[in-house]
Amino acid sequence: MAAYPRMKTFKVILSFLITVSLVYALNRSWSGVPGVDSLPALGRFLDPFHGFWANAEDQPAIPETLSLPGLKGEVKVVYDSMLIPHIYATNDDDLYFAQGYITASFRLWQMETQIRGGAGRLSEVLGKRLLDYDRSQRRLGMVYAAENALQAMEGDPVMSKVLASYTAGVNAYIETLNAGNLPMEYKLLDYQPERWKNFNSAMLLKNMAQTLNIGEKDKEMTVALTMFGKPMIDLLWPDNEMPGDPIVDKTGQWKFNAIKFDSIPLVVPEGVAANRHTADDPGKDVGSNNWAVSGSKTATGSPILCNDPHLNLSLPSLWFAIHLNAPGVNTMGSSLPGAPGVIIGFNDSIAWGLTNAQRDLVDYYKLRFKDNSMNEYFSDGSWKATRKVVEKYDVKGQEPVYDTITFTHHGPVTKDNLYAFRWVSHDASNELRTFYELNRGKNHSDYMNALNSFSAPAQNFVFASVGGDIAMRIQGKYPVRRKDEGKFVLDGTKTSQEWQAFIPFDQNVMDKNPPTGFVSSANQYPVDATYPYYVTGSSFEAYRNRRINQVLSSLTKATVQDMMNLQLDNYNLKAAESLPYFLSNLDSTSFTEPEKKAWQVLKSWDYINNIESQAASYYEAWWDALLPLTWDEMDVDGNFIDFPTTFNTIRILKEQPTLSFLDIKSTSEVETARELLLKSFKLGVEAVEKWKLERKMDPAWADFKGTIIRHLLQLDPLSVRVKHGGNHDIVNATTRTHGPSWRMIVSLEKTGVKAWGVYPGGQSGNAGSKYFSNMIPLWGNGKYISLQFTGADNIPNALGTTTFKPEEK
User: Fold this and answer.
1) Chain centroid, CA 468 distance in Å
2) pLDDT of residue 1
3) What torsion do the CA atoms of 667, 669, 673, 678 make, to the nearest 10 degrees?
4) Looking at residue 56, what is its pLDDT?
């Protein structure tokens, strides 16, 4: 794998900036210059004493002691060989104060940038080119959602103290900053960090909710319904494609009285337009795997739990590894910079992990306003008053911009002033309480109680304990939906079309110690057909989950290495189920030489997307040509309706090869699956040949895929390219920009819990530190680090120890 060494990175950027400065005076601000309106006055950035070079470091400074205001007692912090902090405190307040301080010391710019992005405040520091993004964030009600969550968290006495301590720790670090030690990005963009607020931690959680559960296709499906009709909708976009292996299968064993409502008529509002977006949906790359194997199937006789959330790969990393120890808690795992506690991890007794539940938790309501003032809207025969919020945008380099956002009882009104946006994450919730309790959990009962505080984003929580239990619970706040409710835009003038109730938490999908000896989830359909509630989502995964279950079913004396091998599994089940049929439709007699080569390579492929595979490159190029060719009808005047899923596309090609949708609109001939497969094969080979010509190399899969871990500033010199296998639809779900953002394996042995983990980044957010990206080679080569959570004196190869002391008054 290739990476940019630290000093080379600095020299590349410095050379670039000096070149630019020869054209633009060093002390001239770039604000207002098209395309670069966010860059600073370069004189300060290039200051040899306080600027860019002040951030370079061979080893992080680890002082022996720090005196900090706000501490109650001493806190010992040991930094292990990977710069993971092990925090030992004598009380919760000091524990979370120290977590806030340490996380900010490594990741402050990332923390603040994430909050600015969520709250629609990036144009304040990056200029007017981010204004439209900021406006869309506020129109989604992100601030409104975070404020509601904060109210719930601060209303909880325990979580209020946790937040206050964490916030105080972050601010204690901010107080230590000066022109020399200010993080590089602040110097580059020429602004100062703000003081941290409890609100920021709430916003961070809503950012995750936006990534994970804001997916919907209501408008697209409404357009599709008017164009194609309901029978075709059910064929192309079924609620459950039935590939098998739901997350929980307890057929006929759901023993509760479900809430039921009469069905509502399917009323399609007029004038609905599809969202304008491209056909390349980045959401297909956002997923995760988790599973737990019972001791009956492991070599040690103890459960093993595994988790690898698939998210955008970025530098600094989304995650920050940490160990928290205080009376009543000894937990380790991955934290989110900006939020207290461990999000995915383990302690002395239990382990837990998360994958996204994919459920539909968003609805759009078509509105009817009394007049253009939008002061009143129609609901159940009467006019209701709207609520107006004036938003101010302090755009860098120009006068402030104002925007008025209208709210109805559904939620905020979208930017086209036609729809109200109802999102479960707008509701008050207290997710941090879940992780606070999981960090301290001892058994299955504690796990169940902890999840009762969790509303959104809906997640598949896997669990295992030293006591021998394994479990899965698909936890979230789910509306009780009637058939087809939520798939299309709803009529905002009728309250009968609104959410009437939520599924009681004790009726959510869950399982404990199933006879299979394992539980697993990979974003697939959640439950068997006898579950009494209607389930729908923007899409459900169909391949990773079945491959995981195939492997787990075959294991009898599973080891930690077996689990590592499975997380790194590159077997392409999609290709195994589709390629023989694809090839059978090709007439090779008229192939060109490159097409003959591709055909031969594909015929002999073992369906593994490993680093060297050329067949994987040909197959993926073929698929990338086939999908838009098959669904060219989904382009409606430049607005793209989401394509049917990969699984359903392949099924239709196989089972209904003469379906009218397989005819290519732009030709006079009538094509069937056979013609589509031939044409897309030729286009795929053409794409590979063009790639080979441009790069003058063979199309090894890792090179053809080109995985890159980008810096949040999108600067290539600060980004890292990785040679790695896998792809979407594969257990090792590494695409060009997404993948396993944290791999964790925990063996819950009675003699002591053992754990391993790795992520594609490093603990430091400083691009001038070797700990900025030092775990990427390990991650890329399928290696793990041992996660030690022993006493302070037993951390091997520690880089140093700092004792935090209360400031003397």
Assistant:
1) 30
2) 40
3) -70
4) 62
pTM for the full model? 0.93
Closest to 491 (Cα-Cα) out of 224, 266, 239: 266
Distance CA 479, CA 374 (A): 28
Sheet with 490-491, strands from edge to edge, namely 419-423, 362-366, 490-491
Q: Please tell me the predicted confidence (pLDDT) of residue 55.
A: 59
pLDDT of residue 12: 46
Residue 61 CA to residue 75 CA, distance in Å, equals 18
DSSP 639: E
Handedness of CA 529, 530, 534, 537 (dihedral sign): negative
Tokens of residue 88, six digits: 């030992």
Handedness of CA 445, 449, 450, 451 (dihedral sign): positive
Per-residue model confidence as pLDDT tens digits over 408-436: 999 999 988 899 999 999 999 999 999 99
Name the DSSP class of 183.
-
Give the residue among 708, 566, 645, 67 at the shortest CA–CA distance from 358.
645
State which amino acid sits at residue 540.
F
Residue pair 758/745 in contact (Cβ under 8 Å)? The answer is no
Phi-psi region for residue 523, left (φ > 0), alpha (ψ -120 to 50) or beta? left
Peptide bond into 48 cis (omega under 30): no
Secondary structure class of 785 (helix, strand, coil): strand
Per-residue pLDDT tens over the stretch 77-86 = 999 999 999 9
State CA 224 to chain mean position distance: 28
For the purposes of burial, counting CB atoms within 10 Å of the CB of 198, is it exposed (0-12), middle (13-18) or buried (19 or more)? middle
Q: What is the DSSP code string of 223-247?
A: HHHHHH-HHHHHHHS-S----S--S
Q: d(Cα 737, Cα 22) in Å, to the nearest integer?
A: 34
According to DSSP, residue 239 is labeled S
> Tokens 């020429």 appear where?
190
Q: Encoding tokens for residue 534?
A: 């209607």
Q: Is 10 helix (H, G, I), strand (E, B) or coil?
A: helix
β pairing state of 320-326 and 329-335: antiparallel
Q: 677 Cβ partners below 8 Å, 6+ apart?
A: 582, 585, 586, 626, 653
- Beta strands 387-393; 401-407: pairing state: antiparallel
405: enclosing H helix or E strand: strand 401-407
Residues 6+ apart with CB under 8 A from 15: none
Tokens (6 digits) for 516: 């299979």
Q: Determine the pLDDT at residue 270.
A: 77
Question: From the CB of residue 7, how many other CB atoms can be counted at a distance below 10 Å?
Answer: 12
Cα–Cα nearest to 569, from 686, 711, 799, 727: 727
What is d(CA 168, CA 610) in angstroms, rounded to the nearest whole number? Answer: 47
| Angle, CA of 303, 309 and 310, to the nearest 5° | 145
CA distance 596 to 56: 53
Q: How far apart are CA 139 and CA 439, in angstroms?
A: 35
Do 541 and 573 contact (CB within 8 A), yes or no? no
The residue whose two tokens read 């680890």 is: 62
The Cα 116–Cα 412 span in angstroms is 20
Q: Rounded distance, CA 408 to CA 384, Å?
A: 8
Among residues 636, 571, 579, 568, which one has the least CA distance to residue 604? Answer: 579
The backbone region for 734, taken as left when phi is positive above 0, alpha when psi lies in -120 to 50, beta otherwise, is beta
Contacts 24+ apart (CB under 8 A), 500-507: 500/261, 501/259, 501/261, 502/477, 502/478, 503/259, 503/478, 503/479, 503/533, 504/259, 505/451, 505/452, 505/475, 506/256, 507/256, 507/258, 507/533
Helix (H, G, I), strand (E, B) or coil at 611: coil
Fill in the amino acid letter for 263: S
With a cut of 50, list the residues of the chain below it in pLDDT: 1-7, 9, 11-42, 45-46, 48-51, 53, 278-283
> Before 760, cis peptide (omega within 30)?
no
Q: How high is the pLDDT of residue 808?
A: 82
SS3 assignment, position 67: strand
Q: What is the DSSP string of 80-129?
A: -TT--EEEE-SSHHHHHHHHHHHHHHHHHHHHHHHHHHHHT-THHHH-GG
